[in-house]
Amino acid sequence: MLPALQAGGVERGTLEISRFLVEQGHRSLVMSADGRMVAQLEAEGGEHFNWPIGKKSLFSLRLVKPLRRFFMAQKVDIIHARSRVPAWLAWLALRGMPADKRPRFVTTAHGLYSVSRWSAIMTRGERVIAVSDTVADYLRKHYTLDPAHIRVIHRGVDPNSWPHGFQPGPAWRDHWLRKYPQLHGQQLITLPGRITRWKGQLVFVRLIRQLRDQGLPVHGLLVGDTDPRKRRFEQEIRDLIRTLDMQAHITLTGHRSDIREIMSVSSLVLSLSLEPEAFGRTVPEALSLGRPVAGFAHGGVGEVLQHWYPAGMVKPNDEPDLLRVVSQLLEQPPAIPVEPLFTLRHMQQATLNVYHELMP
Questions:
Q1: How far apart are alpha carbons 7 and 304 in whole angstroms?
Q2: From residue 203, how far is each of 43, 161, 219, 238 by CA, in Å?
Q3: Which of 166, 165, 154, 155 minimizes the C-alpha distance to 258?
Q4: What is the DSSP string of 74-119?
Q5: pTM of the complete model
Q6: What residue numbers bound the domain in which 127 lies?
Q7: Cα dihedral value 351, 54, 281, 175, nearest 10
Q8: Alpha-carbon span 119 to 33, nearest angstrom
Q9: What is the pLDDT of residues 4-31, one digit of tens each?
Q10: Inside any domain, residue 336
């Protein structure tokens, strides 16, 4: 259960678990308010149920009784809630079910939620999956829950989908350069992620200006869509680009479904979240491709870099240190281990193991 299947790490993780469950002979039911990823979910054998379970409104409470009927009619064994509103609705529905017919309840804490009774629902699972040690430590520090119920399962990357040394074919490259001719002959520095202030796009713009001032032939790529509510911030980014005279050297691509190809032709991939990320999937994906990564070393991003690519660790929110690390990596990047340290198969199997703990 999650709000929608549009885009993002939570959504991708849902599809990855759904696909694995189907491969293992289980029935996978996903409930959300639709989205662009539904077609893929269904093509991979998952079943989608279009319910508005992500709206933060008292009117959502009218779904509690229908959900209870749904769980019983579909003979649901395990409910896995990945967001707060769906978790509350599921928990309220479960409270009114007979104990012998009640599905088991699992939650995944995908983020460092604001500390409140509202967020505490994500700790009420019979098992609480934390997507990193950072999240697990945060839950233990701020909430009252049995530590024995926490399971740390890092998000994983599929080395078959993100193979070391991957390079896109000539057709993709031709189309890419026709669409963005300004990228020809440039060192691409890519910041993937939704356009939102805490992802660090303004830091990125200032960094590209500094690198250009050093005479480096770099071009900055901001790859990610903009929520309609964030249009004013997108305009703020564009205004800063214009103020720093970077219009010819920074490109906003909007949503792209070929992020693997884009990262593979990048000289450097960045993660500049101003606040600690729960995990940060693009970091292991880029490293799996064999592309150097630099990022503010806090939260899950810091965990991944420390274990896999410590040369890319930057002091959090320290722009001079960012310039130093990026300059070094552009000049002489250390080799990246070929074997990925955080794999998709481990994440999938570990999640299924949690289900088996509750239903042996």
A1: 22
A2: 39, 30, 15, 13
A3: 166
A4: TT--EEEE-SHHHHHHHHHHHHTS-GGGPPEEEEEE-S---SSTTG
A5: 0.81
A6: 9-156+344-358
A7: 130
A8: 21
A9: 998 777 898 999 999 999 999 999 999 9
A10: no
